[in-house]
UniProtKB/TrEMBL annotation:
PANTHER family: DOXX FAMILY MEMBRANE PROTEIN (PTHR36974:SF1), MEMBRANE PROTEIN-RELATED (PTHR36974). The lineage of its organism: Bacteria, Bacillati, Actinomycetota, Actinomycetes, Micromonosporales. This is DoxX family protein.
Length: 129
């Protein structure tokens, strides 16, 4: 196995781990996530929190398996783009918060770009494995 394919597999597993951890926290401690669900969405924020947690776990599982890695990488990129409005809501809601909380909220906004790119990279690299 080449170094590049080992690195690609590790990258996919790392993204899977990140998504799995996020999914578990959404399910075990949903309250913080409920607060950042945009109010313009119909229904209960808790439903969106649970659905996103389950989606993160499903994406993690897909990334962990070579046969589904490409599709899961593309889906992860889409997922990271789709949850961006929640990060915007958090930044708006925390604009008057203490500086440390504001930094967290504002820091999440540009973080979505490398996450989207990471999902796309995993998808692209899965074709060569």
């Amino acid at each position: 196995m080449s170094r590049s394919s080992v690195a690609a597999r590790r990258s996919a597993y790392a993204l899977a781990g990140l998504l799995a951890a996020a999914g578990v926290t959404h399910l075990l401690n949903p309250e913080p996530y409920d607060r950042i669900v945009p109010r313009s969405l119909p229904g209960s924020p808790r439903t969106y929190t649970y659905v996103s947690g389950v989606a993160e776990l499903a994406l993690a599982a897909g990334l962990a398996h070579p046969r589904t890695r490409r599709a899961a990488g593309l889906a992860a990129a889409g997922f990271f783009a789709a949850v961006f409005p929640a990060n915007v809501k958090m930044a708006v809601d925390w604009r008057m918060a203490p500086p440390a909380r504001r930094a967290i909220a504002y820091g999440r906004l540009p973080l979505q770009v490398p996450l989207v790119l990471w999902g796309l990279k995993v998808a692209r690299e899965s074709r060569t494995q």
